[in-house]
Each structure stands twice: as C-alpha cells, then as structure tokens.
C-alpha cells in the first residue's frame, strides 16, 4: 500500500481530516474512512485508521482533560458500548452503503431542522438519559462500521450549547472510549494485519502533527464561529455520505 501513489495521497488527506477532528473540529473526521474506502475495502480502511485514532485520542484527551461534561459521558458511553457490540454482531450482514445512508440521513435531517425548524428556547433543553443512551448506541454502531459516529453524537450534544472547550473535551473523551471499545471487535473480525499495522505506523508522525494543528486552530476560533463551522461540516459530510450510500445501493 505504501508504494501506491493513489493510496498515499488518499491516506494523507484522510489522516489530515482525522487530525483536525481530534484537534476539536468534530465531524470532519468522519470523511476519513469513506475517503480511504475509495481505494480499500471499508472495514479494512477503518482498521488501518484505528491505531492512528488511538494515538491521537491520547493526545486530545490529555489536552482537554479538564474540560468535559460528566453528564453526557455517563449516558452516552453505556449506549456506545451497546452500539459497538451490535455492530460487531452485524458486521457481516450490514452493507457499507446502508450505514452511510443512515448516517447521512440523520446528519442532514438534524442540521436542516436546526437551521429551519422552530426557534429554540433561550435556555438549552435539559438532556434526557434515555435519549443519550439511544444516540450513544447509534454513535458506537456507526463508528464501529465506518468511523462515522459524529452525527448521532452531535444530534444529542450540540443543541445543549455547551461552552466550546467543554464540547471539544467531551467529544475527545467520548470517542477515545469508543475507539478503545472497538479494538476487540476488529481483532475478532480479523481486520488487523501486519501490512495494515505497518501502514498505520508509517502514517502516524503526520497524523500527530495534524492533531496539534487542529488543537491550535480550535483554541483560536471564536465560539460562535466554531458552532457555525461544526454545523456546516456535519451537513456537508452527511450530504456526501447520503449521496455515496444512495449511489451504492442503486448500483447493486
């Protein structure tokens, strides 16, 4: 893989998306696996990116370790574990196109409702535990199958209007935990290979550098602009996943 120019260019762009996402621009990272899946089978692409994500998670969790929402993690992570287990059980039966279609539909509907739906109250809605477990399970499920857990997570968290750095820290810790949960299923599914792990190791220095770039950019982006960017990223990436999923389903 490392001698294939097309793979290298695609992988570097995918890792750049991951670094910016782990730095705090949550959502953009979900484009990484679909992009890499253009040149590799989707689950293999996800397995190559997972070791990189785990290293980036250590950096991001350390940087944002003092700024996170305990309530959100308490309800999202149990749900995420359920979603990871379900994805593990169904990995051989659920098509990548169906997963992309589901994620894209959720993301696009959520953003359009936020932009054009009824005006929200001045005070953010109080998050519910049942809803948190549900969206957490969906995030764990979609993250396991295609590293695209951001839209379900953001559907639950963004309307709460958390302080910017608290949102970034909660995102970092939540997905660090989800990525750790995915190691055992990926081993069980036989997705880790010597070639894949060597490729992950070769991409790692660049991934770490871009991670720090994302952290630097987030700290210098005003809160209002940060939220606007977050919604736009979720919308654009979800739209592309929706298009990609529909195209694949119609082609089969």
Give the helices and strands, then pairings.
Layout: H1 5-23, H2 32-36, H3 42-63, H4 70-90, H5 96-116, H6 129-146, H7 150-157, H8 164-181, H9 183-188, H10 194-219, H11 223-251
Textual characterization of the structure:
Helix 1 runs parallel beside helix 3 (42-63), helix 3 (42-63) packs across helix 10 and helix 5 runs antiparallel to helix 11 (223-251). This protein has 252 residues and is an all-alpha fold. The chain has helices at residues 5-23, 32-36, 42-63, 70-90, 96-116, 129-146, 150-157, 164-181, 183-188, 194-219, 223-251. It has one domain (5-251). It is globular.
Order of helices and strands: HHHHHHHHHHH
Count up the domains: 1
Largest sheet, described in full? none
Number of helices: 11
Number of strands: 0
Helix content: over 70%
Low-confidence stretches: none
- Quaternary status: single chain
Strand content: under 5%
- Ends distance: 27 Å
Q: Categorize the overall geometry.
A: globular
**Coarse structural class:** mainly alpha
Mean pLDDT: 83
Identify the notable features of this structure and list them briefly.
single chain; 252 residues; mainly alpha; 11 helices; 77% helix
Would you summarize the structure shown here?
This protein has 11 helices and no strands. It has 252 residues and is mostly helical.
């Amino acid at each position: 893989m490392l001698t294939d120019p097309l793979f290298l260019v695609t992988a570097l762009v995918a890792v750049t998306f991951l670094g910016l996402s782990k730095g705090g621009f949550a959502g953009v990272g979900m484009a990484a696996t679909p992009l890499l899946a253009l040149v590799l089978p989707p689950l293999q692409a996800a397995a190559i990116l997972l070791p990189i994500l785990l290293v980036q998670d250590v950096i991001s969790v350390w940087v944002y370790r003092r700024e996170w929402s305990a309530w959100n993690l308490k309800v999202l992570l149990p749900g995420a574990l359920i979603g990871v287990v379900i994805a593990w059980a169904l990995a051989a039966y659920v098509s990548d196109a169906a997963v992309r279609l589901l994620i894209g539909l959720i993301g696009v509907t959520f953003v359009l409702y936020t932009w054009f739906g009824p005006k929200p109250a001045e005070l953010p809605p109080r998050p519910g535990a049942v809803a948190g477990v549900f969206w957490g399970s969906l995030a764990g499920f979609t993250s396991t199958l295609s590293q695209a857990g951001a839209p379900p997570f953001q559907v639950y968290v963004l309307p709460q209007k958390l302080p910017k750095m608290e949102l970034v820290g909660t995102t970092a810790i939540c997905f660090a935990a989800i990525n750790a949960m995915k190691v055992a299923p990926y081993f069980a599914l036989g997705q880790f290979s010597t070639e894949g792990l060597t490729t992950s190791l070769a991409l790692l220095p660049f991934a770490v550098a871009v991670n720090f770039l994302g952290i630097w950019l987030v700290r210098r982006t005003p809160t209002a602009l940060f939220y606007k960017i977050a919604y736009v990223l979720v919308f654009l990436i979800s739209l592309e996943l929706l298009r990609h999923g529909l195209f694949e389903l119609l082609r089969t």
